[in-house]
């Protein structure tokens, strides 16, 4: 068995492992969704995720070691394994991506519901708990922690920090902290915040649609330009050179 065969086998095994990671993550997410009442996803990274990454990185490093051989192959394999490990750890699991997108999508509605509850006369902690119970989903879990922390006497900064991992929630937490420090009404700020979040989401969607249009045209250009050169310019250049030479 040649070195190239062993290296190719290691690379194929690493690719199959990477595909199985994504498939298994989706399966775990679906099972957890069936088990919960709101279909929320579980932990962002399953317990087997680091082991799978280490195994894939080791296979990649082994492929480099087999191809190069000797001390240079050993050094190159170690460097390749470390680089692959760091690169794979930066990849966001499908479950974490779905959770992040769903939390960001539910945030404007949560701000509107909080504003409505506070205008009805409920306290901040009761409003947050009521919205968490009515909203459902992964954002409801974070809001529930915020409400319970406030209800048990925790400080506003500690309580609202549970929302900081959600994209855009730092503005909601900042408005809540300013209200707790100055005593200003929070309902109006939350209503304006919800409108701003929806506007930002619409702008981001429009920008993504424009980028998609450019990316769709790019493969067509990459295919058309070589064909145009080969079919249009090359015969003319060959004919001119034939006449000149």
From TrEMBL:
One of the Pfam families matching this protein, by short name: T2SSF
Query: Domain Type II secretion system protein GspF spans what residues?
Result: 111-231
Entry annotated with the keyword Transmembrane: yes
Superkingdom to which the source organism belongs: Bacteria
Question: Which InterPro entries does this UniProt record tie to the protein?
Answer: T2SS_GspF_dom
Q: What is its main location?
A: membrane
Keyword annotations for this protein, in alphabetical order, are:
Cell membrane, Membrane, Transmembrane, Transmembrane helix
State which residue ranges cross the membrane.
Answer: 59-84, 214-241
Membrane topology, as annotated: Multi-pass membrane protein
Q: Name one GO cellular component term.
A: plasma membrane
| Cellular compartment(s) | Cell membrane
What's the name of the protein?
A: Type II secretion system F family protein
């Amino acid at each position: 068995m040649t070195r190239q065969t062993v290296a190719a086998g290691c690379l194929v095994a690493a690719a199959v492992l990477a595909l199985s990671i994504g498939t298994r993550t989706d399966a775990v997410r679906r099972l957890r969704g069936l088990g919960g009442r709101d279909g929320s996803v579980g932990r962002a990274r399953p317990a087997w995720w680091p082991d799978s990454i280490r195994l894939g990185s080791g296979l990649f490093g082994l492929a480099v070691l087999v191809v190069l051989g000797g001390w240079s192959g050993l050094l190159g394999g170690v460097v390749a394994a470390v680089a692959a490990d760091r690169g794979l750890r930066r990849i966001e699991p499908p479950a974490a991506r779905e959770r992040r997108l769903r939390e960001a999508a539910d945030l404007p509605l949560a701000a509107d519901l909080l504003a409505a509850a506070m205008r009805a006369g409920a306290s901040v902690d009761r409003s947050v708990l009521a919205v968490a119970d009515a909203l459902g989903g992964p954002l409801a879990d974070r809001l529930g922690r915020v409400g319970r922390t406030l209800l048990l006497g925790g400080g506003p900064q500690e309580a609202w920090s549970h929302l900081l991992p959600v994209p855009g929630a730092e503005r909601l937490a900042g408005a809540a902290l300013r209200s707790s420090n100055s005593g200003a009404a929070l309902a109006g700020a939350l209503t304006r915040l919800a409108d701003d979040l929806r506007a930002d989401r619409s702008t981001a969607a429009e920008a993504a649609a424009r980028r998609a249009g450019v990316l769709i045209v790019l493969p067509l250009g990459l295919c058309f330009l070589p064909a145009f050169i080969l079919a249009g310019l090359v015969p003319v250049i060959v004919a001119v050179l034939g006449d000149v030479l």
